[in-house]
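User: Please predict the structure of the protein below. I'd like the answer in structure-token form so I can feed it into my own downstream comparison script.

Assistant: Understood. Taking the following sequence of 543 residues as input:
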Amino acid sequence: MSFIARKNEIVLRIAAAAQQLPVLSSGLWFHHDIRDNFYYASYLFAAADDQPGQWTSGSEAAKQTAEAVLLAILNLQDKEQGSATYGHWPLNLGADPREAAPNPLPVELMGSLMAYFVNRYGSRLSMPLQEAFASALKHVYQSRFYMQTNVFGHHDAKYTSAKLIFGQLFDDSALLEDGVSNLKRTLAHIHKQGMSEYNSLPWFWHWVQAFTCAWQLIDDQSIKQELAGMLDFLWLERASFYLKGAFVGAHCRAQRHDIPLDSNVLHDYVQFGDFELPAEMPRTEYAGFLFYEASSEIRSIAMNRTEPVEVRKRIMKQVGAGASTLHSYAYITNDYAAGGMWERYAEFDNEQHRWDISLPLSKQAGVNQAYFFHPSDSNAKEDPRHQTGHSEVLFYRNTIMALYSIPNGTSDRIFGILPPIEWMQEPGMLLGQSKQVYFVVYSMQPCELERVSDKVNVSSSGQRNGIIIEVVGAEEAVGVGIDSFEAFASAARSRKPEWSVGESLNVRYITGDHVELMLEMEGNGGVERRINGQTVEFTQYTT
């Protein structure tokens, strides 16, 4: 299936869903987020206009519904010049959207996407809607919402894109030049410092959409080339942590539909197409419209996993006048990936997802991630995305070690999530198998398992605790003489880790490929990590 066919599949799927939605008395489908109304209406209009033969109930009726929703959205814009929220829309619409307060977030991306929609479909819109869009886009331009200090984050990516798009749209050469300057500075910064918003969901896709939107709209070829350079960087970053729909490794943040199941996958589906489009699409945005084809080399990095690769990234985080350095690691094979961030960092909303084992999408039912953490909140089962810093880790290829030293006065229960494959529980260990992968999970303290439909919840108590996960592909195991799960389990039982508690918390483990790993949390707060007796160093980590 081609890129175009996959985009059309998304458009038709979302349009069909939109057509089944009841229109509320407000003239909208949703009140939780105004942007979803814009996305769904865009898809409904596009499907009816581009593929009229798909609509048994009539494409004109579908267009009229879409136009009515779009007009209702545009009517909620703050059009009062001098207002602090001039040019903005509300985000959460509440019971009565007319009373909802404007919010600075929707316009950041939606404003540029509106410009794209009008550029593509404007001549086919009714005259009242054409006029409403022209007015709305002028208010967006005049609001100057994009005139912000560039700190090289996802907001700035959207501001930069808007400067380029609205600079061209309104023949504002100074604004266009400002956008070009920001674009060059941002690309130079992330080349040198890495992406401080590492693997962030949904922010990474906001970077991609913002710059793809500008790339598709901008006429100036030199600017277009600069945008292509940015998009090449972003897709290389994505490809480096890609495994058949999974976004592997650490994330600076992620939402509930990202952890513990990768669900924000539409852009991946269009670009790579090596997994099935899921039935649930929790974040549609403009994946069915915007597209920049990554190079064959970048696509090969993402999709050719015949040989294992190690990905090592150095990332600079600005902290006031100084900076902190983080180190991201991932080990990726054709059947699984393992890795995370060596350092704990207090990210936005405490959403750092520090490490996991990831499985490809469409290989099994239920969640595709396995990980453990010490929760910072009491509702870890309902929202397993927030953790404390009372842990240290060691990553080595297909093995992850984590120790937990939990202070007095804090809940001593760690929590884990495993895919809903076949699991056997034995003293101090869990053994799991799917068709493609074998797991062993060692625990310092006893574990309790709760099997639910889409995952296995694990909990374990103790102020000093530890977890080791080693995973191996079934075909990979055959290559080292392990021809069955029973043989894998027998080998795993023979090399249980050595846990030690005293002044410090320590574990020593011999991996399946006979490598000695040692992790120690020292009583003074220090950490020691050794692989075959050698201290772990980060000299090979680059941006």
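That's the full token string. The CA atoms of residues 10 and 288 lie 6 Å apart.
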